[in-house]
Amino acid sequence: MDQLEEASQKSMLHPKPKGLMLQYGTAGFRTTAKHLDHVMFRMGLLATLRSRKTKSTIGVMVTASHNPEEDNGLKLIDPMGEMVTPSWEGYATQLANAEQEALCSALKDIIEKETINMSETASVFVGRDTRPSSQRLSQAVLDGVSCLGGKIQDYALVTTPQLHYMVRCRNTHGCYGTRHITRLLSETLPGIY
């Protein structure tokens, strides 16, 4: 079984609710947390593909910012700490909305359109907020990344700006700053240290 078929099989552990349609926008995905397990797994897959395409570390932040506690969401972070490029927002929407039987072909479509070398190393940083659903949902992201053989750095509880910063630090090889969490906190929260 190849990686994409395996990803499709493993996605059955993160089932998509029939008929649910979501749109990735400027704020990423946002909805009731109970509807997001499949989205998180699939964005782990997408982040791994994006990492291979850019030959850089990509970030995935599980958060719903200021939405109600029962909600959650996800933001994809591109190599320089910026929001994911708009063309990849479309891929995020495509993968999130693909029915189970179409997931493998949706992944193949992205790989072909973007000419992604699947033997390229992939690196994904993952963070989450303190919502009750965030740990479970970030595990689904980790499952997606590992399913396609991506290397993972799970930062657990961090703020969204901190994860953006760490992704940029990694991809600038320390020229922008350091990504060590203690150093990050001392650089971003000087009043505490």
Q: What structural class is derived from the secondary structure elements?
A: alpha/beta
Overall shape: it is globular
How would you classify the quaternary structure? Answer: single chain
User: How many strand segments?
Assistant: 5
Q: Could you list the spans in which at least 5 consecutive residues all have pLDDT below 50?
A: none
Q: Span between N and C termini?
A: 51 Å
List the helices and strands and how they pair.
Elements: H1 3-10, E1 29-32, H2 37-54, E2 57-62, E3 71-77, H3 86-97, H4 103-113, E4 123-128, H5 134-147, E5 151-157, H6 160-171, H7 181-188
Parallel strand pairs: 2-4, 4-5
Antiparallel strand pairs: 1-3, 2-3
Helix pairs in contact: 1-4, 2-3, 2-5
